[in-house]
Specification:
The chain is an alpha/beta fold. Helices cover 39% and strands 21% of the residues. The protein contains 14 helices and 18 strands. α6 links the parallel β6 and β7. α3 packs antiparallel against α6. Nicotinamide-adenine-dinucleotide binds next to α7 and α8. Nicotinamide-adenine-dinucleotide (NAD) binds next to α7 and α8.
Length: 449
């Protein structure tokens, strides 16, 4: 069965790809298994060198990769360039980590006790459509640094950058079979990877609903899983914050990537005494978001990924919003920047919209802010805006969420751990922490008697 890949800004086909089924997935797993002993035997310094070469190739092909990503996901080109820049940094970082992730010696009686970080074997990397290349690199970097081989399954809607990356991996000199990119449906290829007895671990990023299924499926073979799932993060704005700065930044924390961001701070919690002033600043700032052709250097927000997704996003907006922006005319899966007033019990505040819809919710005081922010099944990211440093830290400690920022809305950095609490998943990506989830600790006791 072939797969037609669309440009969501024009609704025109970009490519026609063959889709893999169970048989092709099994072949890819077998290739990864065959490549494992050789890859594991590569000296650490050489593995690092190959990862550095991959980083350099990603940089050299940066513009090409950014254009692929921009066309396939509908991302503004400027943002796509920044994302590809991060991909190169991720490979650089994990090239540097290869020989810094080591075991320990532990004082015990009668001998020497030492630990080793062993690779797991063949890993299944399952990636969503919103940040296809970035999220693939977050998994590939530590997986390869720890000497695993992988089958990478991109999302059906956005496979093009992963296919190109697979070519660059070979060009970098990473041996055949170490990285196998398999394009196909999640319910077939993804599911097979989850069930396959020769796959040691699934590193999954996607929806909480599918993540739940992955976890269930992995139970049969006691597969390791890391799950990076959905979010419903709170952007908590106290009255003593720099309101102009907080309001100017808030739209980009929701409307970036057209809201299709697991970290989207889609619940904007505002202290009641500053509510009117802040919402008026927020509406002004949202009016300034430039929505349009992703290829235009000035564009800040592109279309949604598909017609079906646009319908889903639209279902969250009933009644007259506080603000609704403009969109370019059809074709394209456009949806306007939308700001609604809500309570935390409304559907728009409870479920992940995954589109450019921000819900503004008032709160009474610090305790109320913490209560509302934590009143969600998710716990991925969030922000706290205040000039009171002690309060910022008090609230940061009180929030049940994995990646927070104070007086800022950015949660993702190459060197720092990223991942969720509660139903946003478990396991951490990025930073040195990610290496824990891509290796097994082996303990060896050597008797000196
Ligand atoms: P999705 O769950 O529908 O799909 C994710 C991937 O899983 C795709 O490659 C898909 O083909 C595959 N898949 C589908 N069914 C499967 C199955 N039964 N077994 C195995 N794999 C299967 O998610 P999506 O719509 O592509 O992405 C959006 C979701 O991803 C949002 O919920 C978002 O919050 C989440 N996300 C989370 C993070 C994070 O780091 N926490 C980052 C980006 C996106």
């Amino acid at each position: 069965m072939s797969l037609t890949v669309l440009n969501p800004a024009t609704e025109e086909p970009l490519a026609e790809l063959e889709q893999a089924g169970v048989e092709e997935t099994d072949v890819a797993v077998a290739r990864a298994k065959a490549a494992f002993p050789g890859w594991r035997a590569v000296a650490p310094a050489d593995r690092a060198r190959l990862l550095r070469r991959l980083a350099t190739l990603v940089e050299e092909h940066g513009e090409e990769l950014a254009r692929i990503e921009s066309q396939n996901v509908g991302k503004p080109i400027a943002g796509a360039r920044a994302e590809v820049g991060m991909v190169a940094q991720v490979f650089q970082f994990y090239a540097g980590a290869v020989d810094k992730h080591h075991g320990e010696t532990i004082p015990v009686a009668g001998g020497v006790d030492m630990t080793f970080r062993e690779p797991m074997g063949v890993l299944g990397l399952i990636v969503p459509w919103n940040f296809p290349l970035n999220i693939a690199s977050w998994k590939l970097g530590p997986a390869l640094a720890c000497a695993n081989t992988v089958v990478l399954k991109p999302a059906e809607l956005t496979p093009l950058s992963a296919v190109r990356l697979g070519e660059l991996v070979l060009e970098a000199g990473i041996p055949e079979g170490v990285v196998n990119v398999v394009v196909g449906p999640g319910s077939v290829v993804g599911q097979r990877l989850v069930e396959h007895p020769e796959v040691a671990k699934i590193a999954f990023t996607g929806s909480t609903e599918v993540g739940r299924r992955v976890m269930q499926g992995a139970a049969t073979t006691i597969k390791r899983v890391t799950l990076e799932l959905g979010g419903k993060s709170a952007n908590v704005v106290f009255a003593d914050a720099d309101l102009e700065r907080a309001a100017a930044a808030a739209p980009y924390a929701v409307f970036d990537n057209a809201g299709q961001d697991c970290c989207a701070r889609s619940r904007i919690l505002v202290e009641r005494i500053a509510y009117d002033r802040f919402t008026s600043l927020l509406v002004d700032a949202t009016r300034g978001v430039r929505v349009g052709d992703p290829a235009d250097e000035q564009t800040e927000m592109g279309p949604l990924i598909s017609a079906a997704h646009r319908e889903q996003v639209a279902s969250f907006v009933d009644g007259e919003p506080l603000f609704r922006g403009e969109t370019p005319p059809a074709p394209g899966f456009w949806f306007p920047c939308t700001v609604v007033e809500a309570t935390n019990d409304d559907r728009v505040a409870r479920e992940e919209v995954f589109g450019p819809v921000a819900a503004v919710i008032p709160f009474a005081d610090e305790a109320d802010a913490v209560r509302i922010a934590n009143d969600t099944p998710y716990g991925l990211s969030g922000s706290i805006w205040t000039r009171d440093g002690a309060r910022a830290l008090r609230v940061a400690r009180a929030l049940d969420t994995g990646a927070l920022s104070i007086n800022s809305n950015s949660s993702v950095r190459v060197a720092t751990p990223f991942g969720g609490f509660k139903q946003s998943g478990f396991g951490r990506e990025l930073g040195m922490q990610a290496l824990e989830a891509y290796s097994e600790v082996k303990n060896v006791f050597y008797s000196t008697d």
